UniProtKB/TrEMBL annotation:
<dbReference type="GO" id="GO:0006047">
    <property type="term" value="P:UDP-N-acetylglucosamine metabolic process"/>
</dbReference>
<keyword id="KW-0067">ATP-binding</keyword>
<keyword id="KW-0547">Nucleotide-binding</keyword>
<feature type="binding site">
    <location>
        <position position="569"/>
    </location>
    <ligand>
        <name>Zn(2+)</name>
    </ligand>
</feature>
<feature type="active site">
    <location>
        <position position="517"/>
    </location>
</feature>
<keyword id="KW-0479">Metal-binding</keyword>
<dbReference type="GO" id="GO:0009384">
    <property type="term" value="F:N-acylmannosamine kinase activity"/>
</dbReference>
<keyword id="KW-0597">Phosphoprotein</keyword>
<dbReference type="GO" id="GO:0008761">
    <property type="term" value="F:UDP-N-acetylglucosamine 2-epimerase activity"/>
</dbReference>
<feature type="binding site">
    <location>
        <position position="581"/>
    </location>
    <ligand>
        <name>Zn(2+)</name>
    </ligand>
</feature>
<comment type="similarity">
    <text>In the N-terminal section; belongs to the UDP-N-acetylglucosamine 2-epimerase family.</text>
</comment>
<feature type="binding site">
    <location>
        <position position="477"/>
    </location>
    <ligand>
        <name>an N-acyl-D-mannosamine</name>
    </ligand>
</feature>
<dbReference type="Pfam" id="PF02350">
    <property type="entry name" value="Epimerase_2"/>
</dbReference>
<keyword id="KW-0963">Cytoplasm</keyword>
<feature type="binding site">
    <location>
        <position position="586"/>
    </location>
    <ligand>
        <name>Zn(2+)</name>
    </ligand>
</feature>
<feature type="binding site">
    <location>
        <position position="579"/>
    </location>
    <ligand>
        <name>Zn(2+)</name>
    </ligand>
</feature>
<keyword id="KW-0021">Allosteric enzyme</keyword>
Amino acid sequence: MEKHGNNRKLRVCVATCNRADYSKLAPIMFGIKAEPQFFELDVVVLGSHLIDDYGNTYRMIEQDDFDIHTRLHTIVRGEDEAAMVESVGLALVKLPDVLNRLKPDIMIVHGDRFDALALATSAALMNIRILHIEGGEVSGTIDDSIRHAITKLAHYHVCCTRSAEQHLISMCEDHDRILLAGCPSYDKLLSAKNKDYMSVIRMWIGEDVKPKDYIVALQHPVTTDIKHSIKMFELTLDALISFNKKTLVLFPNIDAGSKEMVRVMRKKGVEHHPNFRAVKHVPFDQFIQLVAHAGCVIGNSSCGVREVGAFGTPVINLGTRQIGRETGENVLHVRNADTQDKILQALHLQFGKQYPCSKIYGDGNAVPRILKFLKSIDLGEPLQKKFCFPPVKENISQDIDHILETQSALAVDLGGTNLRVAIVSMKGEIVKKYSQLNPKTYEDRIKLILKMCVEAASEAVNLNCRILGVGISTGGRVNPREGVVLHSTKLIQEWSAVDLRTPISDTLHLPVWVDNDGNCAALAERKFGHGKGVENFVTLITGTGIGGGIIHQNELIHGSSFCAAELGHIMVALDGPECLCGSHGCIEAYASGIALQREAKKLHDEDSLFVEGMSVKKEETVTAAHLIQAAKLGNPKADHIIRTAGTALGLGVVNILHTINPSLVILSGVLASHYVGVVKDMIHQRALFSVQTVDVVVSDLVDPALLGAASMVLDYTTRRIY
């Protein structure tokens, strides 16, 4: 695996410029330090780390027990555009001597700051290989240009998201030198929330402050529009003062315009206001705890749209500085933050909420991937970069072994009898499936769901699957916005007013989606089955009960109280048999597996069920399957019951056609093939002529509930705009 030549250690230089990039580089540095048999680590510190006004943050590197080889004072004060240019020039003057002395095999550079551009330029011109962390991302300021410039200088790339990987490929970078690893800081974030946090809150916010009852504000100047960003910062402080909550305000970074922003803070009296605490720096471990338990994070820092998503903390992203970032549903964008009222309204909307934890930027395993990547670097390869001009490679992702790491979902199906969990790939392949009997009590059921999901997520790593989230299909009425089962069917006990999203999201640190099993069947058909590319269609599930889902203009219909598509409870007779819902004459009372079993037992009690070729053991329960078998073997009474059930279902379909006029009806479930012929007959006999051309087909999907649950994860887009 180690390719860097002559079995010698790889000499790695990590250069850090500020508090933000150190939070991403520190996990890598700890990983390198922990493997001295493979690596030698040299640490170079420059930029705002060494400035008192910005917290002298080099001290946290020393506190982490890293030896700092070189300190370079590279910042020209002034905090304007010219000072940034002069700082880059000063760094370029000082770095060659350092690099000549260190002679690293590889330089690790992070991100998109002007200091990082100086580092990459120096290393490239001195023929030192460069590993760039977090390339390919899009934000919305001059940082984009700097980030992409470093990408063109770098020899190897570690990116955090699928989109960033595709951007790098589109920029003609060699796909074999791109590693989709996730953000290194997530390795620490995903294990941080449950640590002691009250002492941290008391230290930085105040003695009497409770979790979720304070705000963290972090806002930087936008170098391409300094005047507007200062005005926006002033409006933000006015809104925070009016909102009247305890607030921790971090000083801005050293970009052009930061001096003016500090003047605004002092003009507003922030440093002496009883609700505010203004600080230059918070150690990263403590900062994690503060944002994890905040009622809201506000500003325009990349931390808000990236790291904070790991905790589901609400974020208000102001202005255009992060306009191109991928974000979780916890982020509310106020892109034109031109009034205090607009920012204040955003605070009222977001403060105190809790969103699903997001893993867009990492799954907690970035550092092992990066170390493996470093060990694979062949120093014998030519240093000159090769660019892969279009056509680019197919849209695939490789880890360091060049094995496809499959984007996947955890799908959960809560049935009346069984509880199933599956790992489902983007293409709808069920990679692995687990099944247990569904417990009878709420406590046992939740415990088993969590246990099975944790085991499946762990196994997914061994199967080279990257889990993007959890989708849950369950019987009953569901509020998918909140992830809550409102009312259950009688088949699942103790399953009303149940919040499924929170315990699973908190345990797995993954976003969670929940919906009714009928809706999930429709989603499965839309992504993987006959409904693919069809704008308007209906799915009917024929199983233990009768359910369904409606896709109208490519969208799933939930209804005003989440009761849409209860197709099994369409009434087709005024005085028909009693349904489990308490009414009479529902489709489910005729055509469900329970209804057929009821009729089979009646025939059995009359000794009218079995015909030649059939038998049942004494202890064997009579089921719908016996009725179907009897009908196939020529039992006229059994055949009549099946045809009556199919007729009831057909009448229900006719009502659906007359109500929403779909172009396709998909019959799903174990009974579908027995009903499809009768349903088509009923459409031709009873439906209006204009809807008789509708296609009626039997689903090809084996596990629509699991596939539908997975599709909620695989198809979800996380952009929210205010």
